Q: What sequence folds into this?
């Protein structure tokens, strides 16, 4: 029997009410998520307990699809649960609630997929998961770490169900519309017309000027409330601001730069609300903190029952809630490198160490771990001998210092020995350490070991205050049959592991360490990652071959998927062939990034792909199939398949919707709308930027040897390059910017080279010259404009990605070996900017680019000193730098290099402090050696030199230089003679200008 | 065991879900009531069925009490149910839902108290009730008749539970704050701080300018949505406008005049939304109209089983849902006057007719109703005899006309008779009518009888389309033991009545009409209203005497209460003595108007009270007790008492809150705030008005013979008179304006006379001169200003109450016998107005006042012609009119009146068409009679006359006048002589100016 929407709500309300939650109501202001409701946003702050559940119809204007998408709407219905503090098994409670709804985990594929939740507009973050039901995200599950800028203690668990998607899954439906809402009325009958109207309103009708004014009024009113300490009213206006922002965003009226300002403002307000609330609750003495804070007490470790007598197998299994894929790897890497040292430091003998990691367990397996530390001696240095004894040599007595030292080291004072060390005499104690039993040693050492496992992001969850990637829920620590008892993060170690999630994580009693691997294997878990990978590859290949295709198996995806499951089972599904008309990149991106599916393509037309070459204008060779990897066995596999097919269908329908809407206009027709996108308040709209870039391209083209044939295409590409930013597809999937532009260019009848260039513009190194030209113009325009607007990166902050832009200038110039004059281009760009770009700023920009160039060059293997030497003179031309470095590094490797460098150095050092360049008066040349040198200098070419050219000249001059310095007194008493000689040397040194600053070289 | 707030919600959701309702969610925009949610506002439109239930947290800013009131808050939680169409027993369903919550109707007093719901802002109305639980309003129950200006078909039943109050009642609590919300947390812990903050925001912090701007923006956005036919988004903005309006109102920033404009605008938007939605659903072909319209089929009347043979007792009982008290009376009056005629028209003999009415039944009892109509003859006139026959006199044959006539009347053509009538000969048919059995006659006649019962407001409820005061749910129609079977409004008559509401309205089988009264009495119902009244009086008196007091029993209240119950039982309760410090009028007003309680006062200090003298500055003699009348017996009477005590306590706490807040400032300090209250856009603020009135009072005072001692107090009273309009107490209970001003004036240390005058200002006739002066100034200022602004009343429309103002000018002048010159005062007021008041307008104003004066005078018993005669000359001085009318009416009663009037008339008629006044040249007097008349005329006083003076003069002149007309030819051929004679008569007629226009008198 199929479920109704309202029955889900009623069941969840009853479920959570029965489990001690308050049941409250949706908020009376449009919110993007239940998190914004004060029952979450405010109540998670501070120490008071709070358990609540409520429905929240959540409004996300840009998710509007005019009622055409099966599961995406501007309004979706969340069911929000907050558990504060963590009750110890929130995941199990959650899975129980799904069972209460009729979702049997054995019939479905339920997964906890990493989700680092972050809401910058309210300065909040947390770690947790999206919960997937057969590939469909049905819930967000988060351990809140911070809200409104305030760190949370205790941490709250937030469970946010997506009710529409749950109904779809429950009823195995393709779309929500024909499913029952309740009382025999369908969801569509109630909401579809309204969905259409709101979508149209948000995308087309909302008046941008009026909405902006509303935002300003709300924002001012929030300030007024805060000034009076009216926290909930203030919060309400912050929410209204947020909604207005979302509407503006949906109307495409907010640029990247403006977005920052909006977020800053909203974040500031949210922080003030959170801080004021925290203060208020404190002043009210936390009325809900009814029981006296029974904070967690660490229980004392249990005594050991038995101690093994012989070397035994050892197992440590840390059982966790699902780890992010990358954390599975980093934990593996850490343990792999650490355990051996760890055991050595503990003086514990052992044989093979093996590490296993899955999303739910980190296992250390050690063969033949010694039951004891060996007994050992340690020599401890004490006070100097003369401080240790007093009295006659025949009748020495121990001083207090000696007695204290002996006592401290637990030896008899008479056993102290006198030895020489570092030329002095000291007393030494020979400390005999009795080896401790291994369990005792490990008991003490394990907490520190686990603590030392670090992750890129970690979280707290309970009052132990411990941080880890995700909560630790059990620990197995067995030496043979003996449990090593310790407690960490509120968990006491034991011999109970847990089984597969889809089987309900049943307890698995591990009788002994030796039997661990078998027990785990028997429970269906594939502990070894390589084994999981191989299994996936095999299953995926086999599945693909069933439809005569070949799976696209990228290493990254394979690795990730292997870290998402403990028991991989491939499920192949199909999608509607009509979607194959979508750009190939869109299809792959959706399957891979969003769904972690392996795409399937026609066997005969495999196209090799490198990571940075994700664009291909070839007609797609994809087949309408995908392969998902389920966690678990094949029970209910058809339900799982259908569920995944519905999800992918909905996602493709979404993309299709955008593309269909978008191609109603030609790409060119989008360009004027760039006027509504602010690039930056001081720098105008994206249309203004686009026009500057088009001008700059005209200047750049000749430098890149673009032919007169190519020029019109280059100009056309520059003209159109940003137009896709205002298409719906790019608004939706920003990562496809450029790619979509290229696709749409082709569909609009533009030339292929134009389309290709557009599609390449965001690649670090565009392949084509036209792509290179427009990318460079775009990046240089950004650098020049934003620096002039005072937005140069500072410290770690680089909100506009200017470091990446600078790399995007130098890297392609190097790879294309394009001779270029950055300074000149910066100057030209400066002239096109709407604000003044001072010479000083231009210099800063060049220095900034040079800084990036320096990094790039060092990454290419060039030596630091050589890079610095070349950059000092040639930083404006990155390709030339590489050419010069190649020459210079060859010179430095020559055996006579020190001689050559020394000859130049003699000239350079003596002249470098001179403030002026002295003329040479031939008549003032006195000595033969200076006349000889002058004769040589006179015939040096007046042309600019390459490194090779210059150094060859120095080689040629070296004898004359050395003779000159050996015989001639440069610093003559006669001022004129002295200046004449300095002038002569300056002629030589000057020639290095534009080549390199050799003084920066090692050995100078 | 006490209930929790959330358990009530969960139970109601489950209850209504089980009864086929959709369960939806609160709306995501602040609404004042669940009615505004589109699931009500839109879905009740059109023919589609719709059954829905949802929670709606409802925001009413001006109900904010900073969390200090036990049951009044700016946010209260509604549970809204819509049943469309009416399912036939919505009240029973509702009462079942209360049982599901644990409210046993036998333990409580549950009442359905008339409530004519109207929401002008959305052009909606309906009829129904407030449901009272032990005196507490816990639910609104309405049959919607119109929404957004669209008439509803079918009608929807709306049930709106007030959840906070239900929880208070369920837990027999004094206040909501310490009751459990759920999960061990109290309502106060969750909401009280927030309640404080929002109250403060709405009353103090909200920025009026910004809120106005928001209103304008929302309003413009609503227009934009409507232009695109985006109905739900438009509705959303209408709701936002409405909330902004409420905030402005709470800030005291909206004047009466502005309010109208706001309402107009919101109404217009709401109508457009409703109309567009109706259109849209029609175009969609009403998707929810799934079953083919099974509209109600009128079932054919059942055949009679037995027919009585002898005169029998007859009973008709129309069983209804609770009627409004006034409808109980009007139905009584109608039936009382109608039934006898009704039976006569039906030719049915009978003896005594008695009518009984209660809130739930209208009963007609007839003694000895004949079982049959008598047989009877009727003479029907046919065609003229000469058209009826053709042929020779001896051989007449019938024409077709005659044959047709005979056939039509069902007589043999040969039986036609020829008779004379009106001087012509016609054929006549003697139609013999066989008397029908009474049941047959009544069966046909009753539907029409019931249809003819009219009410001030009536409603439809089901698809019969019938209108009645409230739904008809059963009909008893018994002649002896025989049911008279008919159907009306979808109800089939029978012999089943229903018992008392608190007993669950059990079915009562009425064995025969004779036994009806006993059966009803046995069921506990007091059918006779006088009996109910007497019972109430007796119980109330007895109760009051228990506390040594005396109940204040006003007829109006007694009558109303007697119409609210079928079984009256008095319940005496007490309230906190501290509330006795509140103004007596506030206390009485709350008890009487809001709660229908009888107040109790100290026996020794009874003060007589007339309806228009509701103000008394004597210290209150009230006792802290009240007497409520419960419907039902005394089971659970203590619960009922406590419930009523809590309700009254909360209401007094509310008043106390206002008074306490208000008296923090002196009355004088409120005056400047009048600047924020717009009187009218063209006429400035209430402060501006107040200043004009103060000026005008200076002019008026001398006319009212105000002494120089009184003058400063008069000025002070005028200065302060409007200040209370911006106090919270008056904002809350507008009916107490003036009274509160007086009270606060005393508390602010003003002189008693000043306070009294302020308190009297809204009485039609203030008792004191000072009160009179300021009231007149106020009313005249309104009349002058608003007429000048073009807002004179038109037709039935009088939004500013100018008719009442005009009556309030003339009535007190009459009662105070104050000589006054209205024209002069209007002129003076005109000079103070900010806009031009033309002479024409001033004349209109005077005419308008005269129109009211005319009505007042006729109401006083003066004859129409005399009133018109006096008003024609003295309308500017109402008191003088009365004085003059008294004299005139005495004259008219004289026996010689016709002679006196005739004498004057002779002078007046002949001169009245003359365009000019002719001089008298004594030398041109020829005849003796004209010389004599002239001699008499010469000595008439030149002083203005009274009616008496003038008519005495006429009496004196009469012989001379008559002699003059008998002998002298006025219209002489000599023009000069003629004009001289006319001039002489004109002197006489002129003297009537300023006295009366005697030509308007009867007999002139």
A:
């Amino acid at each position: 029997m199929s479920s109704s929407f309202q029955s889900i709500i009623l069941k969840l309300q009853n479920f959570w009410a029965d489990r001690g939650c308050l049941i409250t109501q949706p908020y009376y202001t449009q919110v993007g998520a239940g998190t914004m409701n004060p029952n979450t946003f405010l109540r998670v702050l501070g120490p008071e307990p709070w358990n609540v559940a409520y429905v929240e119809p959540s409004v996300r204007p840009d998710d509007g699809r005019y009622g055409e998408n099966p599961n995406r709407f501007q309004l979706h219905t969340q069911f929000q649960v907050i558990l504060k503090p963590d009750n110890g098994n929130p995941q199990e409670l959650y899975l129980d609630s799904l069972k209460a709804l009729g979702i049997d985990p054995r019939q479905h594929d339920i997964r906890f997929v990493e989700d680092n939740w972050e809401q910058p507009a309210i300065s909040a973050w947390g770690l947790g998961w999206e919960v997937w039901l057969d590939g469909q995200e049905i819930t967000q599950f988060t351990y809140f770490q911070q809200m409104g800028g305030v760190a949370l203690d205790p941490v709250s668990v937030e469970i946010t169900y997506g009710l529409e998607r749950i109904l779809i899954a429950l009823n195995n439906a393709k779309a929500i519309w024909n499913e029952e809402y309740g009382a025999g009325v369908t969801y569509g009958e109630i909401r579809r017309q309204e969905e259409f109207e709101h979508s149209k309103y948000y995308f087309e009708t909302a008046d941008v000027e009026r909405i902006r004014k509303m935002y300003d009024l709300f924002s001012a009113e929030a300030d007024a409330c805060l000034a009076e300490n009216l926290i909930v009213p203030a919060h309400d206006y912050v929410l209204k601001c947020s909604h207005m922002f979302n509407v503006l965003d949906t109307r495409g009226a907010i640029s990247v730069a403006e977005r920052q300002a909006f977020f800053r403002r909203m974040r500031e307000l949210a922080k003030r609300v959170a801080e004021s609330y925290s203060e208020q609750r404190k002043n009210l003495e936390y009325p809900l903190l009814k029981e006296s804070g029974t904070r967690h007490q660490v229980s004392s470790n249990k005594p050991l029952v038995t101690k093994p007598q012989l070397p035994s197998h050892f197992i440590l299994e840390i059982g966790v809630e699902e780890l992010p894929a990358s954390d599975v790897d980093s934990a593996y890497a850490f343990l792999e490198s650490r355990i051996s040292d760890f055991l050595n430091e503990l003086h514990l003998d052992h044989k093979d160490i093996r590490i296993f990691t899955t999303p739910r367990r980190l296992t250390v397996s050690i063969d033949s771990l010694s039951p004891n530390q060996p007994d050992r001696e340690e020599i401890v240095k004490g006070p100097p001998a003369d401080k240790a004894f007093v009295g006659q040599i025949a009748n020495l007595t121990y001083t207090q210092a000696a007695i204290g030292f002996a006592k401290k080291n637990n030896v008899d004072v008479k056993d102290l020995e006198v030895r020489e060390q570092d030329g002095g005499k000291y007393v030494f104690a020979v400390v005999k350490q009795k080896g401790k039993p291994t369990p005792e040693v490990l008991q003490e050492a394990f907490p520190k070991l686990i603590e030392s496992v670090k992750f890129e992001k970690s979280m707290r969850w309970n009052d132990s205050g411990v941080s880890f990637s995700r909560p630790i829920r059990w620990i197995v620590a067995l030496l043979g049959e003996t449990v090593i008892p310790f407690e960490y993060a509120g968990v006491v170690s034991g011999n109970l592991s847990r089984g597969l999630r889809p089987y309900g994580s049943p307890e698995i009693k591990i009788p002994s360490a030796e039997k661990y691997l078998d027990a785990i294997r028997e429970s269906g878990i594939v502990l070894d990652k390589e084994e999981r990978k191989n299994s996936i590859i095999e299953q995926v290949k086999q599945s693909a071959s069933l439809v005569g295709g070949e799976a696209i198996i990228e290493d990254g995806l394979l690795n990730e998927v292997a870290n998402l499951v403990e028991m991989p089972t491939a499920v192949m599904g199909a999608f509607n062939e009509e979607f194959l008309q979508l750009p190939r990149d869109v299809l792959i991106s959706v399957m891979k990034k969003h769904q972690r599916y392996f795409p399937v393509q026609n066997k005969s037309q495999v196209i090799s792909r490198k990571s940075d070459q994700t664009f291909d204008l070839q007609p797609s060779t994809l087949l309408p199939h995908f392969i998902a990897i389920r966690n678990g066995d094949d029970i209910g596999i058809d339900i799982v398949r259908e569920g995944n097919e519905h999800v992918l269908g909905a996602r493709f329908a979404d993309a299709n919707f955008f593309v269909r809407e978008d191609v109603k206009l030609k790409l060119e027709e989008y360009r004027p709308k760039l006027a509504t996108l602010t690039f930056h308040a001081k720098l105008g709209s994206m249309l203004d930027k686009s026009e500057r870039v088009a001008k700059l391209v005209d200047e750049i083209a000749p430098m890149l040897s673009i032919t007169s044939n190519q020029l019109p295409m280059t100009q056309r590409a520059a003209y159109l390059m940003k137009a896709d930013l205002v298409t719906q597809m790019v608004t939706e999937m920003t990562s496809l910017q450029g790619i979509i532009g290229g696709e749409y260019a082709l569909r609009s009848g533009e030339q292929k080279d134009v389309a290709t260039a557009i599609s390449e513009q965001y690649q670090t190194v565009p392949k084509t010259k036209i792509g290179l030209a427009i990318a460079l113009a775009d990046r240089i325009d950004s650098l020049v404009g934003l620096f002039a607007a005072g937005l140069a990166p500072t410290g770690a902050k680089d909100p506009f990605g200017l470091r990446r832009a600078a790399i995007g200038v130098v890297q392609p110039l190097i790879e294309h070996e394009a001779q270029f004059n950055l300074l000149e281009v910066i100057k030209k760009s400066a002239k096109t900017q709407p604000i003044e770009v001072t010479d000083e700023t231009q210099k800063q920009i060049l220095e900034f680019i040079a800084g990036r160039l320096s990094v790039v060059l060092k990454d290419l293997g060039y030596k630091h000193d050589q890079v610095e030497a070349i950059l000092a003179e040639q930083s404006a031309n990155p390709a030339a730098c590489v050419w010069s470095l190649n020459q210079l590094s060859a010179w430095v490797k020559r055996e006579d290099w020190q001689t050559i460098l020394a000859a130049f150095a003699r000239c350079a050092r003596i002249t470098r402090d001179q403030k002026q360049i002295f003329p040479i008066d031939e008549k003032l040349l006195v000595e033969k050696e200076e006349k000889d040198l002058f004769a040589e200098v006179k015939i040096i070419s007046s042309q600019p030199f390459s490194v090779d050219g210059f150094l060859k000249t120095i080689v040629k001059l070296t004898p004359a230089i050395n003779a000159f310095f050996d015989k001639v007194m440069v610093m003559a008493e006669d001022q004129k003679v002295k200046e004449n000689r300095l002038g002569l040397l300056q002629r030589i040194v000057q020639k290095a200008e534009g080549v390199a600053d050799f003084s920066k070289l090692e050995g100078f």
Remarks:
- DSSP finds 33 helices and 31 strands in chain B.
- Residues 256-283 of chain B form the longest helix (28 residues).
